Amino acid sequence: MTRYAALLRGIMPSNPSMRNERLREVFEGLGLEQVGSVLASGNIVFTAEEQPASALEDRIQAGLKDGLGIAGGTIVRELAELRALLDSDPFPGLTHGRGTYLTATFLKDGALGEGAEPPRPPEQPDPLARVVGYDAQARAFLAVVDNSVPGRTPDLMTWLERSYGTDITTRTWLTVQRIVKKLEA
């Protein structure tokens, strides 16, 4: 058995169909075990037989659509991939805060196309957003965003969607840490 995290795209906790207890019910109905949620923004941890992430993504997405009418995307990562990402310390010396908002944008398996080389960090989309790298194992762009300028919100997510499509989802570094902690509990 393997521990996994499902990172769900487009979850709005104010929508009754998207609350954690409803999301967990779908996962349990799919026969997944040790199902838990992390925060109220579409982060579900679970245990399943080891299998390709893409198979789990398709199965979970079909269950969410059939059970709750949620058509957003599902991205799955194994605990080992997320643990290795944390252990790589991609933000050395930085602490998550308004001026250094640390993010990881995960790409869905296959989003780059079959046999595609892992992407290099793209040209910087905004002076307040700096992509610091790409982790091939976790299939994630890592970025530092400066949210401290009043009236100015860097729009890194829109830029990444234009560059790589909508089969992506972004989490703060703190959320990634919380997900790993829950997976290891």
From TrEMBL:
<protein>
    <submittedName>
        <fullName>DUF1697 domain-containing protein</fullName>
    </submittedName>
</protein>
<dbReference type="Pfam" id="PF08002">
    <property type="entry name" value="DUF1697"/>
</dbReference>
<dbReference type="InterPro" id="IPR012545">
    <property type="entry name" value="DUF1697"/>
</dbReference>
